[in-house]
Structure formats: C-alpha cells, structure tokens
Amino acid sequence: FATKAVAQALVLIVEKPLPAEFLPAATALVANMALYSANSLMAMQPCDPSSAFFGFMGVTSALVFANLGAAYGTAKSGVGIASMGVMRPDMIMKSIIPVVMAGVLGIYGLITAVIING
User: Fold this and answer.
1) What pLDDT sits at residue 1?
2) Cβ-defined contacts of 90-99 (< 8 Å, 24+)
3) What is the reported pTM?
4) Over 1-54, what HEC string results?
5) Dihedral through CA 26, CA 28, CA 34, CA 35, nearest 10?
C-alpha cells in the first residue's frame, strides 16, 4: 500500500509514470525524508517566552498606533469641517472625505493586527 501511494505521489510531482526499477529507491527516499523531518521536529528547542511577548507587543502596537492616528486624523478633519461650515457652507459634504479616510486608517490597523497575529 505504501509503495503504491509513493508511486502516485511521485507521478503527481513529475507528471509522468515512474518506471518500476525506481520504485524501491523512491520509497526509501520518501521514508528517509519522513524520518528526517520527524527527527528535526523533535530536536527543535522550545521558543523563549519573551519572543511571544514581543510578537504580541507588535500586534498591540500596530493596533494602538493605527487607531491613535485615526483619532488624530478625525480630530483634525473635524476642526476643518467646523471651519468649513463657517467659511463655505456649500463645501461641507466634500470635507467629510478626510473623516472617512481616517476611519479607514483605524480599520486598516485592525486588519494588520489580525494578519500579524495569524
């Protein structure tokens, strides 16, 4: 059963049937690769706990700084909308665009944090 599975896997890789004389060598190669990957996985050292801390601090900083920037942008554009309402009331709807863009920045920070978190 194993040799048949190896032969099918190799046919998928090389996209043509494997000659019968190569089948024992291919089976041995696949078995050695599986043994090597199992040994290397067992030989790995556990991660230092500080690496997880700094990883999550990166996620936190991405979220915090993006939302601080979004809040600052919303505040500055809110002041601009207020002054625009006084000086040119017909342009108020055009001045809402920066508020929307600042909100998009906060959403972008959330998406970045989720992607970094994995």
Assistant:
1) 46
2) 98/73, 99/74
3) 0.54
4) CHHHHHHHHHHHHHCCCCCHHHHHHHHHHHHHHHHHHHHHHHCCCCCCHHHHHH
5) -160
Query: What's the sign of the alpha-carbon dihedral 103, 108, 113, 118?
Result: positive
Residue 5: predicted pLDDT: 64
Read off the pLDDT of residues 33-60 as tens digits, 9 standing for 90 and up: 666 666 666 666 677 888 889 988 988 9
* 25 vs 10: CA distance, rounded Å: 12
Half-sphere exposure of residue 32: CA atoms within 13 angstroms, side-chain side: 6
How far is residue 85's CA from residue 79's CA, in Å, rounded to a whole number? 10
